[in-house]
Design a protein that fits this description.
The chain is an alpha/beta fold. It has helices at residues 39-45, 59-69, 87-98, 186-193, and strands at 76-78, 105-107, 126-128, 148-150, 172-174, 199-200, 203-204. It has a 7-stranded mixed beta sheet, with helices on one face. α4 links the parallel β5 and β6. The longest helix is centred in the middle third of the chain and has 12 residues, at 87-98.
């Protein structure tokens, strides 16, 4: 048998579940928010010893926990690498995202996300969703104040829907290592759709990026031999 560290019984607890502290969500830059396994799963794994730190939670305690999470007042938050392997974990994750009404900088890297279209982030100026599973711009959250958007290493096939950002203050866009990067006249198509964009994939807007695109090539993919 493996030797268990004294902290082992706390490994599935969120910071709000640990007693005798008053740390709030807006004081944390990179919190662990994924929930632990159910009691049945813990018994199946032989980890029922972790249950001794759990207890029945009253409605008052639930409300106090919500106040302590304080997601509504987060201005900058990193929720990357949360390992959302189960549906209930993803649901809790989206519950938190819906509360981020004042967040301005948000990192959601490598969370296997596929669709956040129901989410609205009214104040978000910088969003990093690299290394997820988005296939379309339509699956992104509503971000009317976005200035810097990073979508590297997703699976966005075409530029369809990119014009939805035409009326935002978007200045910088990163689409590296997406299939759409291989479209013919890729940079011209992006800049023609987003005339206010200043930088694409880390490269400033160049004179040759301003030439009118061939609209017939909009959905074409270049062939790599």
């Amino acid at each position: 048998a493996f030797f268990k560290l004294p902290s082992d019984s706390f490994k599935y607890l969120g910071w709000c579940d640990i007693e005798e502290h008053d740390v709030q969500g807006n004081q944390l830059h990179c919190p662990r928010v994924r929930e632990g396994p159910s009691e049945e799963e813990l018994f199946f794994r032989g980890e029922e010893h972790t249950l001794k730190k759990r207890k029945q939670v009253t409605d008052t305690e639930k409300w106090q926990k919500k106040l302590q999470e304080n997601w509504e007042n987060c201005a900058e938050l990193n929720l990357s690498f949360q390992d959302l392997g189960d549906l209930y974990q993803l649901e809790n994750f989206k519950r938190i995202l819906q509360r981020l009404i004042r967040v301005e900088k948000l990192w959601l890297v490598d969370n296997s996300l596929t669709d956040l279209s129901a989410l609205r982030l009214p104040r978000c100026r910088e969003l990093n969703v690299n290394k997820n599973h988005f296939t379309s711009f339509k699956q992104l959250p509503k971000i009317p104040q976005i200035q810097h958007l990073s979508l590297a290493e997703n699976n966005i096939m075409t530029l369809s829907g990119i014009s939805d950002f035409r009326h935002t203050p978007l200045e910088s866009l990163i689409l590296k290592r997406n299939p759409c990067e291989f479209q013919e006249r890729y940079r011209q198509l992006v800049f023609s759709s987003l005339p206010n964009l200043k930088m694409l994939d880390g490269i400033p807007k160049l004179p040759e990026d301003c030439s009118p695109p061939d609209t017939r090539a909009f959905f074409k993919m270049c062939t790599i031999l």
